[in-house]
Amino acid sequence: MIYPPAERLPIVDHLHGHAVPDPYRWLEDPDSPGTRSWSAAQDELWRDHAAALPGRDAWRARVAELTGAGTVSAPVWRGGRRFFLRRTAAQEHPVLYTVGPDGVERALVDPARLDADGLTTLDRWQPAPDGRLLAYQLSRHGDERSQLRVMEVATGRVVDGPIDRCRYAPVAWLPDGKAFFYVRDRRVRLHRLGTPAEDDVVVLGEERSWGLEISHNGRWLTVSAAGDGGNDLWLADLSASSPERPDLRVVQRGLGAVTAAAVGRDGRLYLLTTLGAPRGRLCVADPARPTPGNWVDLVGEDPEAVIGEFAVAGQVLLVSRTRHAISEIGVHDLATGRRRGEVPLPGLGTAGGMTTRPEGGHEVWFTYTDSVTPPGVHRYDTRSGRTSPWAAAPGAVETPELTARQVVFPSADGTPVRMVVLARPGSGPRPAILYGYGGFGLSLTPSYSSYVLPWVEAGGVFALAQLRGGGEEGAAWHRDGMLERKQNVFDDFAAAAERLVTDGWTTPDRLAACGESNGGLLVGAALTQRPDLFAAAVCSAPLLDMVRYERSGLGPAWRPEYGSADDPEQLGWLLGYSPYHRVTAGVDYPATLLTTFGGDSRVDPLHARKMCAALQWATSGSRPVLLRHESGVGHGGRAAGRAIGLAADMLAFLAAHTGLRPPDDR
């Protein structure tokens, strides 16, 4: 394959005693004539390759069929009214609906009606306590730089806003529904309806990632801020101080633990924390004495299961956990925490998003999904102890028969790591995809995927590796895959690939690596450290230049996870695995597809551009290195049609380069 020319410049930075070459720095500027010309040539190269991929239309058709299951969310109750999201097969985006006491369902926010081009997404929403007003956030082109508006629910009329620069901002309404706390430009502010946003009081002026919540009665404000290895937490009694100047008392600061706090209807302060408990525990305290020395265990740490969330329904406490990535929900006595039993779940999958009525009651709603079950909503009745379906996924789809096996294997340092292997019944090596993430404490748990199922249905193997850096085994598992221990993640992934080969699932010439965002970094590390293990790779929205990642997108916010090149020791960690800096001339690299998105404000496409140029220059083999760039979408939510097209292209590319026959050729 003949690649577009990309000049290698003799740029070398001398950083803390390291000589760091950066020959493709010129590709960081998307608007320079050189980058524009190079990008246009890469677009043409990808289009030509994609057009020749066997079964591309068949992959797209099957992904679209399975995407037709749609989505539905658990209800959020306010003032006798419920709010929920739903997307049918005919809809490009989830629509926010409401149902009032009269039982009539009505659409409140439909992105497709607001933007016929499908480039507008609903990023976040929060009803007022009485359900009469709705704060909601929209962004365009995938940039996630949301504008916040307030709607009168009864009429659909916008009564406040737009307020810009509200990226996924939390909103905490005051009980009278006339004002709310929110985050703008990474600062906590108080907005009173009908007043200019520029006049909003800045409550907390430090730029951080903030979380906000107000108790059901509007008295207690909890504020959290992400910090090194955990978060800082404050509590304010709004009955004793004004909203403009809340008397924020420190609950925890600088403890390296993750704690979420909320004051319940019984007046107790509930604290879900990893402090002294890497897998989590639930504590209670008097809000007047909220510091850790006054916390009392209500539900202690489980040595094998990671605590997730809790909900209170009457005198019953529900606590969700994941045991080696499989969900369970325990039923406990509210006063003592004593375990009474378990919530019946539909299977071995993922349950979450528990909701209750703010005024109390005996019902709890939650979502459930697994590898072959589209997400649906279930209702648990604390009086009867029964679970019943509440709202199924809106579309009916036929899913393939498959088996799911959890495999435990040792990593390079002997640490046991788990992997879930999905396949149709049969034996013998097959084309396989190994997927991973391994970062930010996020867990890979069983879920329905219109990307995974077509691959398995066509006879392939799909494996999800639950790597260190994730949250599958708690806070310590996360800590063992970040900062100076980041290499553990890549070692885990390589060990997973080797285990798939050893167990006869696949062979290196039929194995592909796949990951997105931080998972794109993982794939970049895998193909530069162990190119011999993989035939193909998809590296989506990736971080790849770890020396300069802090200079773009949300990079500065990720220093607690990766470290900083400004620190001499941490630069050494980063250089040790930075994929862009590990590309070596003369290596036969796997067939590689890098995907980027024009509206991505989290991970700048510059990473993929530079890596693409480096790999195209370096590879000694005939397997292609290609860049798929898509404008008008970003890192996160997008129209269903766009998501279908991306998934189909990735599947077609990986199938072509691992030998899997497409759906119409079986």
Automatic annotation (TrEMBL):
The keyword Lipoprotein belongs to this UniProt entry's keyword annotation: no
The protein's Enzyme Commission number: 3.4.21.26
InterPro entries: AB_hydrolase_fold, Pept_S9_AS, Pept_S9A_N, Peptidase_S9_cat, Peptidase_S9A, Prolyl_oligopep/macrocyclase
Domain Peptidase S9A N-terminal, residue spans: 8-391
UniProt keyword list: Hydrolase, Protease, Serine protease
GO BP: proteolysis
GO CC annotations, alphabetized: cytosol
Keyword Oxidoreductase on entry: no
GO terms of molecular function: oligopeptidase activity; serine-type endopeptidase activity
Ranges for domain Peptidase S9 prolyl oligopeptidase catalytic: 447-659
PROSITE patterns: PRO_ENDOPEP_SER
Reaction(s) catalysed by this chain's protein: Hydrolysis of Pro-|-Xaa >> Ala-|-Xaa in oligopeptides
Family to which the UniProt record says this protein belongs: Belongs to the peptidase S9A family.
The protein's name: prolyl oligopeptidase
Organism of origin: Streptosporangium becharense
